[in-house]
Amino acid sequence: MFSVMKMKIIRMLKIIIGAAGYVWCIIPVIFSGIINAGNGAGLLFFGVLFLWGAFQNKLNSAADKFKALKVLRGVLIAGYCAFTLLFTVESVLMINAVNTAPSEGATMVVLGCGVRGTEPSQMLRLRIDAAEEYLKENPAMKAVLSGGQGDGEDISEAQCMYNELIKRGISSDRLYMEDRSTSTRENIAFSKEIIEKEGLSPCLAVVSNNFHLFRASLVVEAEGLTFGAVPAFTPYPLLFTYVMREFLGILAQWVAG
User: Which of 138, 119, 131 is nearest to 230 (CA)?
Assistant: First the structure.
């Protein structure tokens, strides 16, 4: 009796978590037009989980008759357990990175992202908001604005951030533009060149969205700099999509060495 009840609870949890997760992953697609590896993987993960729960009884009955299905069920269980463990560990590391306070006298490095023509994308605007607030709280701090010009961008990400911060009252003599980078690794490496040339502190206050800071911290430390975080807010409906994308990116980075 207890075993039957336990199986029913597990089945319902799969259905509920699968459906809720699927909705969370599809919201960015429908309302923001965001399609990336994060929501693609999330839709697959939660869609399979939902179907697994919905057809659990039939799958179990079939697995008792066919060895191949029994193996498939075992692979699914092992895969979901491994994924959940890795995702949990990485989420803890992400939270730890977000809570790493910058050292006193640190140099700010603002990591760029998409520009729409000459205007900041939603994520870039959130980073600019965080940079503005922190620079006003620390009037002696200098900032390197890092980001090159990509497809569909009329100006570089660095120039876009510079324009916005000047509009918001940040003095130009506190800002340095790094406008060649096309990746997080280049963001930090090229910003390091400016920091060394200008004699700025190698202790960084890295501004990026909260989900991105752990990966940024790995690059900062690989460059021999000291990491500190200035997290920019990420809207909750978009959070899982971007966390999942970061998870896949970091996983690929670790596998590649």
Answer: 131
Rg (CA), the chain: 22
pTM greater than the 0.85 cutoff: yes
CA 141 to chain centre: 26
Separation CA 194–CA 188 (nearest Å): 10
Residue that the structure tokens 């949890």 belong to: 13
Range of the domain at 200: 107-235
Residue with tokens 């800071």: 213
Torsion of CA 45, 41, 246, 231, to 10 degrees: -70
Domain endpoint, select from 37, 70, 98: 98
| CA within 13 Å, CB half, 107 | 25
Nearest partner of 205 among 123, 113, 138, 119, judged by Cα: 138
List strands edge to edge, sheet with 175-178. Answer: 175-178, 143-146, 107-111, 204-209, 229-232
Helices 37-54 and 56-65: crossing angle, nearest 10°? 70
**Are 67 and 118 in a shared domain?**
no
Asked, for residue 254, whether it belongs to a domain, the answer is no
pLDDT by residue (tens digit) across 99-140? 999 999 999 999 999 999 999 999 999 999 999 999 999 999
User: How many structural domains compose the chain?
Assistant: 2
Q: Burial letters for 143-171: b for 16+ Cβ neighbours within 10 Å, e otherwise?
A: bbbbbbbeeebeebbbbbbbbbbeeeebe
